[in-house]
Write a structure and sequence with these properties.
Elements: H1 2-11, E1 27-30, H2 35-52, E2 56-60, E3 69-75, H3 84-95, H4 99-112, E4 120-125, H5 131-144, E5 148-149, E6 153-154, H6 157-168, H7 175-193, E7 200-205, H8 211-224, E8 227-232, H9 246-252, E9 268-271, E10 278-283, E11 289-292, H10 294-311, E12 321-325, H11 331-340, E13 344-348, H12 353-360, E14 365-369, E15 375-379, H13 381-389, H14 393-404, H15 412-426, H16 430-435, E16 442-447, E17 456-458, E18 463-466, H17 470-479, E19 485-490, E20 497-502, H18 506-523
Helix pairs in contact: 1-4, 2-3, 2-4, 2-5, 3-4, 7-14, 7-15, 10-15, 17-18
This protein binds 2-acetamido-2-deoxy-1-O-phosphono-alpha-D-glucopyranose and magnesium ion.
Residues 63-64, 272, 274, 276-277 line the site of magnesium ion.
């Protein structure tokens, strides 16, 4: 009923001059500017559900960004992020300046995908105060094209991805099932392989986000297993992601808010606002947070899996294992995998889980983590099938790991369970994990520019194509520095250009980043 849709589209007009873009992980902006985009994303995901005759999902979240921001992440029936072919349609629909033009985009999608009416869309949101209004906008968009919006639930991003994936495979998909699957598998792993593991304490910074109540739900069961979790920044007083959370700890390598009384040397972890990122850290007396980032989690995971594969009888049957990284991975981690974990391939992709996930899915066991702690381990379904065909300790162990690790998307809870299991299975403390390799000092800077679209890249974002001439200038700066590496790329989630630099020592890394940031500013 086009006129109804038109009426509805008119209720959620696009603010003049706004040009929302899909970016690295969906649409993001100041919450007040989002109702139109979220309404249209609702319509899009209902049409996608209708076209594929499966359930899709929407998460209202701006992840690690501040409370006043919000955004929308779009979930495909597989539980992965929206198919890249549909990103252009999402952009065209979100950017249509009038209701009539937006309606034409809706009609175009319907024709192209031969979809008569929308399907069912699951909706989740994080703890932001703007969530409920935006959930209403999403539901209105879903209904406008004849789809069915499910009641919006307070969930972590990875929980909703997991639920959508499971539902489309006709598997139990409630939140209770989620906890039962991850925690039940973790319990079995611990009791089979580390029955006499010592009790451990872990202090978790939940960024004052949705991860706090969810981790609190898991904490009782984990404490029965000897893992005593103390959640800090649980949302009762502090602001979301303000001076805390995985993004803060990774980028600043400093003490997050709320950790003033945590003794140095204590095992700590930090999640982001929607609980799809996780990093570990230990406070040092200097106030510096010693970081165990996504690269180090990936290397720990590869070490664990390598051990399991080597222990199995008839270890000659080949299993293809790979680690997927981005240009932000610390050079030392890449060098370590290439030189020491020789049976593990290394693949580089552009930033964003959508790229890493697909590359990881090509392996029997694909480990992917961004340096910021966003990632998981994928087990290829055909590989998992071979595991269930025979019985054996290592097969069961792999199968259980595939349940601990969210197979749809990166998940902080999966990451936490993985690290805890890997350390106890390998018999390691944090010292052995630290000693694997030494991170090269690095520095990340953001540069505000009038038009970040002027910055385009190639070679998995490691080289600039435009503005012309800038790449040569960057290389000239890099050449001045021992073990220097530096790249520039436009952010896909914030209105900035990012500069990453690495060098032999911190001073040189800082100087390199600063010099290149100045070049970027001048050029912009
Ligand atoms: C350097 C960095 O941390 N970039 C993050 C950030 O993307 P940008 O496109 O760099 O803004 O947010 C993405 C979504 O959470 C995440 O996947 C990515 O790793
Ligand atoms: Mg996040």
């Amino acid at each position: 009923m086009p006129t109804d849709v038109l009426l509805q589209l008119n209720t959620y007009p696009l603010r003049e001059g706004l040009k929302p873009t899909y970016g690295t992980a969906g649409f993001r902006s100041v919450a007040d500017l989002l109702p139109s985009t979220v309404f249209r994303c609702g319509a899009l995901m209902a049409l996608r559900a209708g076209a594929l005759r499966q359930v899709t999902g929407i998460v209202i979240t701006a992840s690690h960004n501040p409370e006043q921001d919000n955004g929308v992440k779009l979930v495909d029936p597989s539980g992965n992020m929206l198919d890249s072919q549909w990103e252009n349609m999402a952009d065209a629909l979100a950017q249509a300046t009038t209701a009539e033009q937006a309606l034409r985009e809706v009609e175009l999608i319907k024709q192209t995908w031969a979809v008569g009416t929308g399907g069912t869309v699951m909706v989740a949101h994080d703890t932001r105060s703007s969530a409920l209004d935006l959930c209403k906008a999403a539901a209105a968009g879903i209904s406008a094209v004849g789809g069915t919006p499910e009641p919006a639930l307070l969930l972590t991003t990875p929980q909703l991805h997991w639920m959508v994936a499971r539902r489309n495979c006709c598997l139990p998909f409630s939140e209770v099932d989620y906890f039962q699957t991850l925690l039940g598998a973790f319990e079995q792993l611990r009791s089979s392989h580390c029955p006499s593991a010592k009790a451990q304490a872990l202090v978790v910074d939940a960024a004052n986000g949705v991860g706090a109540p969810k981790l609190a739900e898991a904490a009782g069961r984990l404490s029965d297993l000897g893992l005593n979790i103390n959640v800090i920044n649980s949302g009762t007083s502090g602001a979301l992601n303000a001076g805390c959370g995985a993004d803060f700890v990774q980028k600043e390598q400093a003490r997050p808010a709320g950790f003033e009384s945590i003794p140095s040397g204590m095992r700590c972890a930090s999640m982001d606002g929607d609980a799809d990122r996780l990093v570990y850290f230990v406070m040092r007396k200097s106030g510096h947070a010693q970081l165990f980032d996504g690269d180090r989690i990936a290397v720990l995971a590869a070490t664990l899996l390598d051990r399991i594969l080597h222990e199995r009888p008839g270890a000659d049957a080949s299993v293809r294992m790979g680690i997927v990284q981005t240009a932000y991975a610390n050079g030392s981690s890449t060098r370590y995998v290439r030189s020491r974990l020789t049976e593990c391939e290394v693949v580089m992709t552009p930033t964003g889980v959508k790229h890493l996930h697909h590359a990881a899915a090509a392996f029997d066991i694909g480990i992917y983590y961004e340096a910021n702690g966003h990632g998981t381990i994928l087990f290829k379904p055909s590989f998992l099938k071979t595991l269930t065909e025979g019985s054996g300790g290592w097969r069961t162990e792999m199968g259980l790991l595939s349940q601990v690790m969210n197979q749809a998307v990166g998940d902080a809870l999966s990451g936490l369970l993985l690290v805890e299991y890997a350390l106890c299975r390998l018999g390691w403390g944090l010292a052995q994990w630290t000693d694997l390799y030494t991170d090269l000092p690095s520095r990340q800077l953001k540069v505000a520019v009038p038009n970040r679209a002027a910055f385009t890249t190639t070679d998995a974002e490691t080289r600039l194509m435009t503005p012309r001439g800038l790449q040569c200038q960057v290389e000239a700066e890099v050449a001045k520095v021992s073990q220097g590496r530096c790249f520039v790329r436009p952010s896909g989630t914030e209105d900035v250009v990012r500069v990453y630099a690495e060098a032999e020592n911190q001073i040189a890394a800082d100087q390199l980043a600063k010099a290149v940031a100045s070049l970027v500013s001048e050029m912009a």
